[in-house]
C-alpha cells in the first residue's frame, strides 16, 4: 500500500510485485491518513488472512510467520506484543497506561493493543465498521465483534527513519475516543 507517500514506497512495492505475483500495489494518490489506507488495504485483500504492520520497520516483517503459526482453531487473530519495546520512555509508559485502561473498559486481555503487527482472518476485519482513527483500535473493535484473539511476542526495533506522530496531547485524545467507543460503538 502506498498511501500517497513522497518517499520511494511506490517504486519499492512495484519491484516486489515484479518478482512475486501474489503481491500487488494499491496506490493512493494523496495521503489520506493511516485509517483510510488501512481500510483500503482490508477492502482490497483477497486472501483468507490479512497481515498488518506499519512501514516504519520498528516491527520485523519476519515475525508475520510467528503470528501465522500461532493461529489455530481457538483464535481468529493474533496481535503482536512488543514485550521488549524500543521506544522513548514516555511512549512505553503511556502504552502501559492505555493498555490497562483498555483492559478495564473492554476486558481485552492483550498486553499491547497498540502494536501494529497483527494477523487476522480477513472475514473478521471486513466486518468492522470504519471511522476516523479506527486503525488505532482494531484489536478492541475485533474484541467487540466477538473475534477470538491471542497474542505473540514480537521483535521491536528503534525507529530508524521518520518520526512518531504521537504526543501527550494525542494520548488525551485517545482516552476520549476510547470512552466514545465504549459508550457508542456497536459491532
Q: In order across it, which strands form the biggest sheet? A: 1-3-2-4
For the CA atoms, what is the radius of gyration? 16 Å
The number of E-state strands comes to 4
CA-CA gap between termini: 26 Å
Unreliably modeled segments: none
Q: Indicate the percent of residues in helices.
A: 40-55%
Q: What is the CATH topology classification name?
A: Spore Coat Polysaccharide Biosynthesis Protein SpsA, Chain A
What's the structural domain tally? 1
CATH architecture: Alpha-Beta Complex
Mean pLDDT: 91
Task: Kindly name the structural category.
Answer: alpha+beta
Number of helices: 7
Name of the CATH class: Alpha Beta
* H-E string: HHEHEHEHHEH
CATH-defined superfamily: Spore Coat Polysaccharide Biosynthesis Protein SpsA, Chain A
Describe the structure.
The chain has 187 residues and is an alpha+beta fold. The protein has a single domain, classed as Spore Coat Polysaccharide Biosynthesis Protein SpsA, Chain A (Alpha-Beta Complex). The protein contains seven helices and four strands. The protein has a four-stranded mixed sheet. The chain is globular, with a radius of gyration of 16 Å. It starts with 8 loop residues before the first helix and ends with a helix. The model has no long low-confidence stretch (mean pLDDT 91).
Amino acid at each position: 500500500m502506498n498511501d500517497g507517500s513522497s518517499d520511494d514506497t511506490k517504486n519499492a512495492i512495484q519491484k516486489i510485485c515484479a518478482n512475486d505475483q501474489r503481491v500487488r500495489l494499491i496506490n493512493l494518490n494523496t495521503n489520506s491518513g493511516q485509517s483510510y489506507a488501512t481500510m483500503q488495504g482490508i477492502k482490497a485483500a483477497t486472501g483468507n488472512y490479512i497481515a498488518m504492520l506499519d512501514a516504519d520497520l520498528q516491527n520485523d516483517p519476519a515475525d508475520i510467520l510467528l503470528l501465522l503459526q500461532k493461529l489455530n482453531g481457538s483464535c481468529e487473530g493474533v496481535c503482536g506484543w512488543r514485550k521488549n519495546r524500543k521506544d522513548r520512555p514516555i511512549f512505553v509508559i503511556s502504552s502501559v497506561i492505555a493498555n490497562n485502561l483498555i483492559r478495564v473498559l473492554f476486558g481485552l486481555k492483550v498486553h499491547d493493543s497498540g502494536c501494529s503487527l497483527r494477523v487476522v482472518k480477513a472475514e473478521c476485519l471486513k466486518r468492522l465498521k470504519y471511522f476516523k482513527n479506527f486503525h488505532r483500535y482494531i484489536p478492541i473493535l475485533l474484541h467487540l465483534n466477538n473475534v477470538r484473539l491471542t497474542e505473540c511476542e514480537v521483535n521491536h526495533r528503534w525507529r530508524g527513519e521518520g518520526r512518531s506522530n504521537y504526543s501527550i496531547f494525542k494520548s488525551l485524545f485517545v482516552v476520549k475516543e476510547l470512552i466514545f467507543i465504549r459508550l457508542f460503538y456497536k459491532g
